């Protein structure tokens, strides 16, 4: 049986809602975790298919093939990848910046932006909400997913930067935070199962995108959002993988020093 990853944030619900709501029969095993944990599980072969950080794909691309037509992206504002700071961003040189351990993509993006766009090199530290090791004294904090909504209630941070917006302002491209990857080994050993589950994911996403209101009504309160805020959030997110998204991920890879053409890694379905 294929083992399938699922990010524990509401951002993926539109893709999984057909399965969750019981309309798409699902005979697989879900493993639910934060993105960095899913990256590791897939890399180590403990699961077969999962949304992973685009950074994980970029840095370990030889291990994976990608589902065509799936990503977690935004064109401009994303709302859930936020950099909170007590100082304006260009004043963070040698200040204490805390990055979430749950992310790989957004960590790489904020580090890139701080160094190359804002010319600052802070002291980096790493926290996790589960460990609860983020000190009150942190000058700035990167948060992703449902955690980002919690930080919005913390009025200590005067300056808030949305990384989807930051990226668009510079490159006028969407930003691809995550992609759906399959281990190469799984594709080689079980090609028909992979094709079958891909089609189920397509159906589940179609159902989810047609039932966003139902998702928002059920899940918004769990993350402290109103239904309206949750709908606005879903409108910022995009789950496709168009040519523009491919261009964007290639650009991000190039900026990080990796010469990758994502087109070469797409599964032909
Ligand atoms: C938009 C988001 O995209 C995500 C960000 C990721 C990362 O930074 O590595 C990975 C998966 C996605 O959950 C989010 O989590 O808010």
UniProtKB/TrEMBL annotation:
Q: Which Gene3D superfamilies match?
A: Periplasmic binding protein-like II (3.40.190.10)
Highest rank taxon of the organism: Bacteria
Gene Ontology MF, one: hydro-lyase activity
What reaction(s) does this enzyme catalyze? chorismate = 3-[(1-carboxyvinyl)-oxy]benzoate + H2O
Its EC number(s): 4.2.1.151
One example of a Gene Ontology biological process annotation: menaquinone biosynthetic process
Give the matching Pfam families. VitK2_biosynth (PF02621)
| Pathway in which the depicted protein is active | Quinol/quinone metabolism; menaquinone biosynthesis
Q: Could you tell me the keywords of this UniProt record?
A: Lyase, Menaquinone biosynthesis
Q: Which InterPro entries has this protein been placed in? A: Menaquinone_biosynth, MqnA
Family stated for the protein in its record: Belongs to the MqnA/MqnD family. MqnA subfamily.
The task this protein performs is described as: Catalyzes the dehydration of chorismate into 3-[(1-carboxyvinyl)oxy]benzoate, a step in the biosynthesis of menaquinone (MK, vitamin K2).
Query: What is the official name of this protein in its record?
Result: Chorismate dehydratase
Provenance organism: Desulfurobacterium indicum
């Amino acid at each position: 049986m294929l083992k399938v990853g699922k990010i524990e944030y509401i951002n993926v619900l539109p893709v999984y809602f057909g399965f969750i709501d019981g309309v798409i029969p699902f005979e697989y095993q879900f493993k639910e975790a934060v993105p960095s944990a899913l990256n590791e599980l897939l890399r180590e072969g403990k699961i077969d298919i999962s949304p992973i950080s685009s950074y994980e794909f970029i840095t370990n691309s030889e291990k994976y093939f990608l589902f065509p037509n799936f990503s977690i992206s935004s064109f401009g504002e994303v709302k859930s990848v936020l950099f909170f700071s007590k100082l304006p961003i260009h004043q963070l040189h040698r200040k204490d910046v805390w990055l979430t351990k749950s992310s790989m993509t957004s960590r790489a993006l904020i580090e890139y932006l701080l160094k190359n766009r804002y010319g600052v090199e802070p002291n980096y530290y790493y926290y996790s909400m589960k460990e609860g090791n983020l000190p009150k004294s942190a000058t700035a904090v990167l948060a992703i997913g449902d955690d980002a909504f919690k930080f919005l209630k913390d009025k200590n941070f005067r300056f808030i930067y949305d990384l989807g917006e930051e990226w668009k302002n510079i490159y006028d491209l969407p930003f691809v935070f995550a992609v759906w990857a399959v281990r190469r080994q799984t594709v080689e050993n079980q090609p028909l199962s992979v094709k079958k589950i891909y089609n189920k994911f397509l159906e589940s996403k179609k159902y989810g995108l047609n039932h966003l209101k139902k998702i928002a009504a059920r899940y918004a309160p769990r993350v402290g959002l109103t239904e309206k805020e949750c709908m606005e959030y879903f409108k910022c997110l995009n789950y496709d993988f168009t040519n523009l998204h491919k261009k964007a991920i290639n650009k991000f890879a190039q900026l990080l020093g990796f010469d990758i053409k994502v087109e070469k890694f797409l599964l032909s379905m």
